[in-house]
Amino acid sequence: MVVSIPLLISGMAYGIALSEPAKRVLARRARKAGTAVCSGEGPYLKEERNEADKYILQICPWPWGLRTGQEIA
Question: Longest Cα pair distance anywhere in the chain, in angstroms?
């Protein structure tokens, strides 16, 4: 299989793995590349979603996956 763009930027959780600025940069770069970005298992970050074009929300049964990013700050 040959693809011209990455399939997606893998999920890396906000507040668990990456900071808000890092999540936003990845989302912008995914948009520029024409690919998707995944939220990861951390809280939903509205600002990241606004930066991305194709956004995959990873839903998990863990308590931190059920919150918004505002509760982390």
Answer: 42
- Whether 2 is covered by a domain: the verdict is no
Domain span at 47: 8-71
Q: For the ranges 7-11, 16-20, 40-44, 48-52, which has the lowest average pLDDT? A: 40-44
Q: How far apart are CA 69 and CA 16, in angstroms?
A: 11
Label each residue of 15-72 as H, E or C.
CCCECHHHHHHHHHHHHHHCCEEECCCCCECHHHHHHCCEEECCCCCCHHHHCEHHHC
Q: What are 70's two structure tokens?
A: 């505002």
**36, 46, 38: which is closest to 17 by C-alpha?**
38
